[in-house]
Amino acid sequence: MAESRIRAVQAKVYIRIEALEMDGIDKNHKATWIWYPNDYELWLHVQVSMKRQFRGYICPPFWRMDTAYSNVMFRKKLKLERPESLTLSVQGAFVVHLDGSMLPMPYERKPITSVLIPAGEHELVVKVFMDTAVPALYAAGETITSDGTWEVTCHNGQWLNAGSDRFDDPASPPGAFPFAYETVHPVHVAKAKGTVLVDFGQETFGYVTFLELKGRGVIRLYYGESMEEALAGEEAETSDELEIDFTEPQSLTTPVTRAFRYVQIRADEGLTWQSVQHEYEYLPMERRGSFRCSDERINRIWEVAVRTLQLTTMEFMYDGMKRDRWVWSGDAYQSFMMNNYVFFDQAVTRRTLVALRGKDPVNMHINTIMDYTFYWFISYHDYYLHTGDLAFISSSYPNMLSLMEFCLKRRNTDGMMEGYPEDWVFIDWADMEKRGEVCAEQLLFCRSLEIMGTFAGLLGDGGNEQKFTDLAQELRSRIFELFWDEERGAFLHGRLDGKINDRILKYPSMFALRLGYLNNAQSELVARNVLLNESVQKITTPFMRYFELEALCEIGQQTHVLHEMREYWGGMLDLGATTFWEEYDPGQPAELQYDMYGDKYRKSLCHAWGAAPLYLLGKYWTGVRPEASGYSQYRVEPCLGGLEWFEGTVPTQDGEIKVFMDRSRIAVFTNAVGVGTLRFKSETYPETNEGEIRQIGSGEYELELVRPAFAYEVRIKHPISE
Amino acid sequence: MAESRIRAVQAKVYIRIEALEMDGIDKNHKATWIWYPNDYELWLHVQVSMKRQFRGYICPPFWRMDTAYSNVMFRKKLKLERPESLTLSVQGAFVVHLDGSMLPMPYERKPITSVLIPAGEHELVVKVFMDTAVPALYAAGETITSDGTWEVTCHNGQWLNAGSDRFDDPASPPGAFPFAYETVHPVHVAKAKGTVLVDFGQETFGYVTFLELKGRGVIRLYYGESMEEALAGEEAETSDELEIDFTEPQSLTTPVTRAFRYVQIRADEGLTWQSVQHEYEYLPMERRGSFRCSDERINRIWEVAVRTLQLTTMEFMYDGMKRDRWVWSGDAYQSFMMNNYVFFDQAVTRRTLVALRGKDPVNMHINTIMDYTFYWFISYHDYYLHTGDLAFISSSYPNMLSLMEFCLKRRNTDGMMEGYPEDWVFIDWADMEKRGEVCAEQLLFCRSLEIMGTFAGLLGDGGNEQKFTDLAQELRSRIFELFWDEERGAFLHGRLDGKINDRILKYPSMFALRLGYLNNAQSELVARNVLLNESVQKITTPFMRYFELEALCEIGQQTHVLHEMREYWGGMLDLGATTFWEEYDPGQPAELQYDMYGDKYRKSLCHAWGAAPLYLLGKYWTGVRPEASGYSQYRVEPCLGGLEWFEGTVPTQDGEIKVFMDRSRIAVFTNAVGVGTLRFKSETYPETNEGEIRQIGSGEYELELVRPAFAYEVRIKHPISE
């Protein structure tokens, strides 16, 4: 049976995408590819999670990967004034039913043509099956357009609104994420016998292309985020190997995206090429936020941090691009916060939150980490505060409920959460007791319960609003009762087997502070006894430094934090960083700077949490933050914090807020839609060009920002102490 | 970039099956492919469920299809006396860890060779990723063999014993089910202008092959279970269309399996072939059971029923082979019962039960049908009774618990189950009220609860044993209290909105009888007032006739049932049936016999439940049934039931039980392992060649069958009345 010479057709069963006749489609109607909600994101998450490699081997995540349902059914009620020609493109095998009867599609052994739907009211149903990609549908007619108003079921007894995202070409079904590409040429190429070192000038991500490549043999590419790594050859974290047999010169691009600045190329003799270039793969995002100030070191930090965040923001928010390339809830949470001050790309936030959650049943914490489950809830609240997008909250709410249900089932008899044997209680890479009731975990859990109460209320789920609010209140009381030590002015670490662990670490106190759980007196106690107390164990990881510096800013220590930024992030710049690192210890000798987890070049030199200054400068110098959903209310509380002057822009859902400040003047231009409040200090009574300044304390003032698209100016005398 | 001319290798990432060097493998150790338990079965279920077509279009099931986890991890503790060479074959990308460290595999751009594992105690871990088939592993060394003792996790915090089944060739990973094939030649070929009618002599299943096919054009095949269907052309339920362009003669086989006896072939002019044959695809099963008797019509019924069951028993127990080709819990339940009296192939039962259940979360009833959920539980109990296989019960127990939990959550305030809007309350295609509390459903639910109590007890889950047993007892009391009408000697139909529906239908009474819920007095009432009462609405569907005839046998009505068999099944034989049908109404005119669901040839002429006589003759004439798990205790209660004589064989887990009976003699040869009890009637005191006969009632006797592999003979005088 000569398979290659015959085409045995399974009559009329379409199992591939077919090209389309697009006649009669109104181009103003934007039809998009639709799918079972979240299923493209979950499928994509599986694909990208498997790109991590170690020395050429796969390095799969150690959490369950869920993917798309294979058997789904779309439906749409139609009301047609006249007959309409409907054209379909489907990823998968499919069948169409109109008003309960199968609609035979014209079939003439050529691409699908459109079918005529008669005038009148109809229910259109399309059943789709696909088990190697996301079952998806594109439908377009004169008035008919597939979009999020279509419903879909995976045959679980529920109809949901279909999901969709940026796929609107009927010939390109949802598959690999549609990135942007840019060709980048090396800034330097150094050749030696049998080896070439290529430098692209800064950290980057994507493919390497050989032009006019010819000959026969093997090319080995050793990627380096540092020159040292590229030169280390087999010791480099990532490498590729290409087998070539080209008699005519042609181009060749490497098969997998890599993160690197340098590439060492070792080619067998006889292989030649004209040049090497790089296809930079990236998510196109507008840089809506900005920050410039009197300190050039800080300006450079801001720029390098933006590149760090740009590179780690792709299909999802990744931790770092060289090694894990995984989606981690804690890392992503910090990326979301930074993203809100620079790109304000909320689509990637949504994709990331969906991917992290997976499907029911919940058997494990997100990323297996208890605290990462709670960061997921907290991220949702942040998202809502910045966007006001209740529709997304609503679509995620069932998944929130089942994840919270999982948590509630794991409470101990005192209503608190302890790690199960299979759980990872993380908090930080640091010496601490992680068994039993860890106070920091309870604080995050409590916040998650409050958020569930809030969302339940917003979505009209009164029973759960009451339930979660009550649970949160009880838990908060219990936390304070058990762990708050008024005398020592700090939270104690935890409790194990009924015995309080009275060690004082920074985590619970700084968490309580940032969650707003402390009154003024408690905040001051915590500031003095914990945050600024040199005898408390220092935080050394960038992940927790993020929250620590944030907490220090919350208690007005911007000047101190600025100094830290200049030292820590400036230190990386001094070592040549073009993106910020997973970890940095200024005390380490140069030859150990790239070492991590016991391997010489394991450290990621482009790590999302390294971009923390974006968030800190945006929130605590520019001083802009939403105070109600979607920036409907917001605060502008600028602070020089060690600078002579700065000017910053913060993006919002509906416009930007620009802030300038020096010692004598604050200028705020806002075309955000909500109501803002400018809060500032001045040694003398300030003057303004608009509105009425209110004094709210000694040397403290407020001004309502209510005129749309208006440039407010306030004359101040800035306290010298700051 | 000339893709076809280069091989851009992603270094050392194996994503396909690699051939193996099998040196040093002890062939006595049977390594098998292993996978996450149930995942091959679920993946396979998805594949086969999509084979249903209607007029060339897909016809996907209307229930959720779950599939394999893509990201799994196997582990095995090793204790090697000397170093051992381990050879791996993997379906998916993989990486090996030994004692926590990655084990680089030799990689020389050729098939995987074995790696050396040093002597001593080790933990071997293999992480596998595959999202388009079942991630699976085959490992073999001198002593190392992949099998069900390996553990596997989908990263949900639990390690389970790996699943495996009949795949033991390292070069053939688990994919399409490995069926057997046989070439079948037509018994008749009739040619007319432009068309050929081929008759394969009986209902069959598989592919059609053209030998020495040559020319250019289209061949259309119209399959017919009846000659009428094949001749109906486009009206036939299934058809194929082949595009041919062969300049040299060659063979061609159709692409999809079909169920048929006849094929009409219409070929374009210029196409020629030497002959047509058929590749019969089947599950190889030993026909361990048998039945022969004095009535040739019954003998023929038994043979045709065996073929019906053979054809519908494939990857799973299917309803019928032409149309649905789906796995339905109710249909499968009856197939299991028949299988126990003929093939005793328990692997297909296990596969079917696993496929039906899918994965968590449970959102809907099995096949969306409430009663089908209960049949699933009851099937498990039957399976256990016949096999004593507690290991399978144990591995399925978590899935039983979550399905029962789903049921328990749906009880109303009286602890009974009513259909939710998305549920299908089926029972039977018949006029009846299906809303509210349907008595028949509560009886099945009650039995399911009892079974859960039994299994919980066997598995040492004491809490649930008590819980389910209590729930079952409460429910049983409530059912009798509400629905048992002592005066009318029958169960009432149900209750809707608090109001009893006092209609008497056969279902609840016959269910209660077959579940053993009735005492002798109640059984007699039900027999007289319901089962043998001509004024009660007749059961017309073969599905429910199955249970009705069973119930009639339970009350000793074998002679009546024999008459029914001769009429109903014999009626189909008279119409030329070579397998039994989905439905048969002797009153219908011939031209409507193949009509169903409003289509002229929709009726399946090879439908599993049509084989009911296999079960009835085995259980109620031969009279063999297990009375404790795995036939450790069994009963032999033969009955002539209208026959002059019969001889039958019933397979058990560990041997066969052969029974002969005529009016003067019962002979039982048993090499089953358990303890049997022969129960029979005789007008005179019987004699035996072994053991002591006990009288248990007037003319009723018992004899213990304890001698292994012994031929017992009992002389009786059979009551003339029977």
UniProtKB/TrEMBL annotation, chains A, B:
<feature type="domain" description="Alpha-L-rhamnosidase six-hairpin glycosidase">
    <location>
        <begin position="287"/>
        <end position="619"/>
    </location>
</feature>
<dbReference type="Pfam" id="PF17389">
    <property type="entry name" value="Bac_rhamnosid6H"/>
</dbReference>
<dbReference type="GO" id="GO:0005975">
    <property type="term" value="P:carbohydrate metabolic process"/>
</dbReference>
<dbReference type="InterPro" id="IPR048932">
    <property type="entry name" value="Rhamnosid-like_N_bacteroidetes"/>
</dbReference>
<dbReference type="InterPro" id="IPR035396">
    <property type="entry name" value="Bac_rhamnosid6H"/>
</dbReference>
<dbReference type="InterPro" id="IPR012341">
    <property type="entry name" value="6hp_glycosidase-like_sf"/>
</dbReference>
<feature type="domain" description="Alpha-rhamnosidase-like N-terminal">
    <location>
        <begin position="72"/>
        <end position="265"/>
    </location>
</feature>
<dbReference type="InterPro" id="IPR008928">
    <property type="entry name" value="6-hairpin_glycosidase_sf"/>
</dbReference>
<protein>
    <submittedName>
        <fullName>Alpha-rhamnosidase</fullName>
    </submittedName>
</protein>
<dbReference type="Pfam" id="PF21209">
    <property type="entry name" value="Bac_rhamnosid-like_N"/>
</dbReference>
